[in-house]
Amino acid sequence: MRSPLSLAALVLAALLSLSACVSAGSPSPGSDTQGQSAAASVVAQATLKAAQYDYDGALALLASGTSAEAAAAKAGITKAKDAAQPWAEPTKVPHLFWHPLVVDPARAFSTELAPADRAGNAQYMVTRSEFVAQLQSIYDKGYVLIHPERLYQLSDGVMTSVADRIKLPPGKKPLVISQDDVNYYKRWADEGGFPAELKVAADGTVVNKYTDAAGATTEGAFDVVPIVDAFVRQHPDFSYRGDKGSIALTGYEGALGYRSSVRAYGDTAATQQAAADAKRVADAMKAEGWNFASHTFGHISYSASSAAQIKADMDRWKAEVEPITGPTPELIYAFGSDIANSIGKSYAASDPKYQVLKDAGFSYFFPIDNSSPYYVQVKDGYYRQWRVDIDGITMQKVRDGKATALPLFFDTAALWDPLRPDPTPTLATGVK
Questions:
Q1: Closest to 73 in 3D by CA, of 58, 52, 54, 85
Q2: Is the dihedral of CA 15, 17, 19, 25 positive or negative?
């Protein structure tokens, strides 16, 4: 038996097809073809909203509809709404993250690279084929993408659960995702095998540039953002009301693949144009449901830095990256270097590091831990959620029989890229 949501997704596809057929016709004088097309479009929009769990918004769109299609859609959406249940466990939500994907393993894992670079690529990256398979498995297990701000919101200095507003069908469960270092550093371009900058395509979608081993440059879905965007277009029920994930950016080389850093390249016409190009992409990504997060400006360890050093780094991030991304309450620690240095330890209001970060506007903090599927700490002024790293190191742990959260989401051995170094190199490289 299909779930109400699965039926909604099927209805959406059928109605989109109907709308296209109606719109393609040439209305004769006095015909109501245009009216039929408009009605079909409204039903399709409503069905999409329902597929992404906005049942009230969907029914509001259909409130004045009188067609048989509208009536059928109302009935189906009402049934789905009645079956949906509030999410009662806001602290039991996993957070998975990736680094930029390897498109060409032969180059990214080449033995001709410096040993530390080859090891780093294998340790911290997954391949495009691995990610696509992982994403499908995550979807098949019933997860739904959602922003952490849907779970807890800060009001008058108090972080309060609002997860009871989230209503999902039985079997569906929320998931937070993020991606680090979406800067497309020059080193990766020099090595080859990695996607390059994000850009807005002619059809309005966000895509990557990619240059293959033969030197040919193409545009397409080569990294997490455009792959997830395309997946959600095919599976709208993978996203709660259009939510995708959070993109963590440094700034020392620029943002989103654009060399916009004034600190690195000077205040020139070129850096100004790069910043404008990056902002256009960021705006398009936000419209597609992506959030942005600070990953520090210089990819530095905040646990090993003084409050003064953190402030200097954050001032640079706000000066060079925030104009591109807009303000964000999310801080994704570089290296997972949480200022408290411990899972069980809370942030102290008297801690000067915490004061710097609060003054900078951060209230959502994300360290790293792959030992359990979720760990969340909520205090009056902040939400702290540990992320599970999806990378070669964690996948190797699974293959070695060590406990991680990964089996909850996919079968690591089955999805292991045969072109990946096996086993994952252990040479110390530092987190990218």
A1: 58
A2: negative
Cβ neighbours of 335 (radius 10 Å): 19
Q: Token digits for 195?
A: 């996607």
3-state class of 8 per DSSP?
helix
Closest of 337, 335, 354, 296 to residue 430, by C-alpha: 335
Query: Which amino acid, one-letter code, is at 217?
Result: T
* Helix H or strand E segment including 175: strand 173-179
Which string of DSSP letters, residue by residue, matches 179-233?
Answer: ES-TT--HHHHHH-SS---EEE-TTS-EEEEEE-TTS-EEEE--SHHHHHHHHHH
DSSP letter assigned to residue 150 = G
Token pair for residue 52? 């992404």
Question: What predicted TM-score, i.e. pTM, was given to this entire model?
Answer: 0.92
Q: Quote the tokens at residue 311.
A: 């402030």
Mean pLDDT of 271-299: 98
- Give the pLDDT score at 344: 82
Maximum pairwise Cα distance, the chain: 75
Cis peptide before 329 (omega within 30 of 0): no
Q: How far is CA 284 from CA 145, 204, 245, in A?
A: 18, 8, 14
The yes-or-no verdict on residue 11 having pLDDT over 50 is no
Task: State percent of the chain over pLDDT 70.
Answer: 91
d(CA 314, CA 232): 33
Which residues are CB-contacts of 216 (< 8 A; sequence separation ≥ 6)? none
pLDDT digits (tens, 9 = 90+) for 321-371: 999 999 999 999 999 999 998 888 999 999 999 999 999 999 999 999 999
With 0-12 CB in 10 A as exposed, 13-18 as middle and 19+ as buried, what is 245?
buried
How high is the mean pLDDT of the chain? Answer: 92
